[in-house]
Design a protein that fits this description.
This protein is an all-alpha fold. 64% of the residues lie in helices and 0% in strands. It has helices at residues 4-29, 50-59, 66-76, 89-104, 110-141, 144-155, 160-164, 169-184, 191-200, 209-226, 232-239, 242-274, 285-294, 314-323, 336-359, 361-365, 375-381, 389-404, 411-416, 421-430, 445-448, 455-458, 464-485.
C-alpha cells in the first residue's frame, strides 16, 4: 500500500514522462509555426553530431519562446540588453550541469548538453516541488484528502508544459513552496530559499511576505496572551522586551538576506552594461552580427537609457521597451483571445478569494493578527482554514497584478507556479468524503495498491464541477503541449 506522499512522487514522475512524450509526438507530427520571437543565433562553426540531431529531434519542442532566451544566457551570458529580464539562477545552474554532461558525453555540443541538463534538472525540481507542495497543503489544509488531491492537480496543472520546457517554472515553484512551508515552521534560515527564488523570477520578491507575516503573527499572539487589555503603555513595554527585539531583528535579517541577491544582481547588470571597460569584452562574431541585424544593445553600449536613470534598474525598463509591459497596456481588441485563455485561472483565483472573504470577513479585515474566535471551530465549520489568510493576500496581489499589468496570457503559468490557491480551491471542490483526515479516504483501495493510479481517471462518480475542473486541467495539458512545441502562441 502506497502512502499519499509516495504516490505523489510517482505520479509526478509519470506526468513528466507523458509531457515529454506528448511534445515529441506533436512536434514531429506538425510543422512549426514561424513566430516573430527571439531566436538565439547559431554558430556556423559549431559541430553537430548524429547525437546532437537525435537530441534536437526528441526535445526541440521544449526550446520554444522564452526557452531560446534561457539557452542563449546559459551559452553566452547576458550579451543583449533584452536578456536582462530573465534572472540568472536557472540558466546558471543548467550551464553548470551541462558542463558536467559534456565531460561525460563529449560528442554532444553545447546546445544539446544544455537541453539535456534542463530536462534533467526540471524533472527533479518538479518532482521535489510536487512532494513539497503536498507537505505544505497538508500543514495548511489539515486534510489528507484535500492535500493529496491538490498535489495530484498540481502534477497536471494547466501550465504543465512550462514545467518541463526550458523555463524556470519548476525551480521557482520548488523554491516558493519550500519557502512557504519553512515560513510556517518559523525556520531561521528561510531567507536563503527566498533569496534564491528572487534570483529565479522577479515575482519571488513577494515571497518575503510569508516569513514576515508569520513572525509578526507570533509577536501579536504573544502580546495578546500577556496583555488581555490593549494600552499604549503595555505595547511600549512589550516592544522593548528582549524577546520582542530579537524577533524584530530576525524579521529585518530575513528581509535583508532575501533582498541581497537581487541588489547584487542589479550591481552586476550595471557594471556589465553601463561601466566602460578598458579591456574589450570578447563577444563571438555571430552574436555581434545578430545584434546589428536586430538592433540589440550590447554591454558597454553608450546609448543604454536605463543606465542614466536615478535608480538604474534594467528590469522594468526592458519589460516596457521590448514587451510593452505596463499598467493596462494589454487592454486592446486584438488581445481578447489571450484574455479568454487566461480567464479560467483568474476565475478560480477570484472565486477562492471571494469565498474566503465571505467565510472569514473579520479575520481578513484584522489580517489575522487579532483573533477573536476559536480556531478549532473554524476548521470544523468552514470550507477554508482561517490561517490561509497570508496565501489569500498573496494570491490577491498576484491576481490583480496579472489582470492589470502583465501580458494576460502569462497569468496561467505565473499563478500555477506561484500560488497554491489554484489547486486548493479545486481540490476542496473535489473532496466529497467527509473523512478528510482519514488516510484511507484519499484513494480507492485498488489505487492505494498501485504507485501509478490516481483518482482523476478511476473515480466512480464525477459531479459537474469535477468534470469542468478535470477538463480544464487535462485539456490545457494536451493543448499546451501541442501549441508550445510547435511555436504557437500559448500561456
Amino acid at each position: 500500500m502506497y502512502e499519499p506522499r509516495k504516490k505523489i512522487f510517482w505520479f509526478a514522475l509519470i506526468t513528466r514522462i507523458i509531457v515529454l512524450s506528448l511534445q515529441f509526438i506533436f512536434n514531429i507530427a506538425c510543422p512549426d509555426h514561424y513566430a516573430d520571437a527571439f531566436r538565439s543565433p547559431s554558430d556556423k562553426f559549431q559541430k553537430v553530431s548524429l547525437y546532437d540531431n537525435i537530441i534536437t529531434l526528441l526535445f526541440n519542442g521544449l526550446t520554444r519562446w522564452d526557452g531560446e532566451y534561457f539557452i542563449h544566457i546559459a551559452k553566452y551570458g547576458y550579451t543583449y540588453e533584452n536578456t536582462l529580464v530573465f534572472y540568472p539562477l536557472y540558466p546558471m545552474l543548467i550551464r553548470v550541469i551541462a558542463a558536467f554532461i559534456r565531460k561525460v558525453f563529449f560528442l554532444l555540443n553545447v546546445k544539446s548538453s544544455i537541453i539535456i541538463a534542463s530536462i534533467f534538472f526540471n524533472s527533479i525540481c518538479f518532482i521535489k516541488s510536487a512532494v513539497i507542495f503536498y507537505d505544505l497543503s497538508k500543514v495548511v489544509l489539515r486534510k489528507t484528502n484535500a492535500a493529496y488531491k491538490a498535489a495530484v492537480l498540481y502534477c497536471i496543472n494547466p501550465a504543465t508544459i512550462f514545467f518541463s520546457a526550458i523555463y524556470s517554472e519548476s525551480l521557482f515553484a520548488y523554491l516558493t513552496y519550500y519557502s512557504m512551508l519553512r515560513s510556517i515552521k518559523l525556520d531561521l534560515y528561510v531567507a536563503f530559499p527566498i533569496g534564491l527564488s528572487i534570483l529565479t523570477r522577479s515575482n519571488g520578491m513577494v515571497n518575503i511576505g510569508f516569513p514576515v507575516y508569520f513572525q509578526l503573527k507570533r509577536l501579536c499572539d504573544r502580546f495578546l496572551t500577556e496583555h488581555e487589555n490593549f494600552s499604549l503603555r503595555a505595547l511600549s513595554q512589550f516592544l522593548f522586551k528582549i524577546s520582542t527585539l530579537r524577533s524584530i531583528c530576525l524579521m529585518s535579517n530575513t528581509i535583508i538576506i532575501s533582498i541581497a541577491p537581487l541588489v547584487l544582481l542589479q550591481i552586476y547588470n550595471y557594471i556589465i552594461f553601463c561601466v566602460p571597460h578598458s579591456d574589450k569584452v570578447f563577444i563571438p562574431d555571430h552574436i555581434l552580427n545578430h545584434s546589428m541585424i536586430n538592433n540589440f544593445k550590447l554591454p558597454g553600449n553608450n546609448n543604454i537609457d536605463w543606465c542614466n536613470a536615478s535608480l538604474p534598474i534594467a528590469y522594468s525598463y526592458v519589460q516596457k521597451k521590448y514587451w510593452n509591459v505596463g499598467f493596462l497596456k494589454y487592454y486592446t481588441i486584438k488581445q481578447i483571445p489571450n484574455f479568454i485563455l487566461a480567464l479560467p485561472v483568474l476565475y478560480i483565483m477570484i472565486k477562492c478569494i471571494k469565498e474566503y472573504f465571505i467565510e472569514h470577513r473579520q479575520y481578513f479585515c484584522t489580517l489575522g493578527l487579532i483573533v477573536g474566535v476559536d480556531k478549532t471551530e473554524f476548521a470544523k465549520t468552514k470550507k477554508y482554514p482561517a490561517e490561509i489568510l497570508v496565501f489569500i493576500i498573496h494570491g490577491l496581489f498576484m491576481t490583480v497584478f496579472c489582470i492589470f499589468v502583465v501580458h494576460i496570457q502569462v497569468s496561467t503559468r505565473l499563478l500555477c507556479s506561484a500560488s497554491p490557491l489554484v489547486y486548493w480551491y479545486c481540490a476542496l471542490i473535489m473532496c466529497h468524503t467527509p473523512h478528510y483526515n482519514d488516510n484511507r479516504a484519499y484513494e480507492s483501495v485498488e489505487n492505494m495498491n498501485s504507485k501509478w493510479k490516481v483518482f482523476i481517471l478511476t473515480q466512480n462518480e464525477y459531479t459537474l464541477k469535477d468534470k469542468l475542473i478535470l477538463t480544464y486541467f487535462l485539456g490545457y495539458v494536451i493543448i499546451g503541449c501541442f501549441m508550445f512545441s510547435n511555436f504557437l502562441p500559448w500561456t
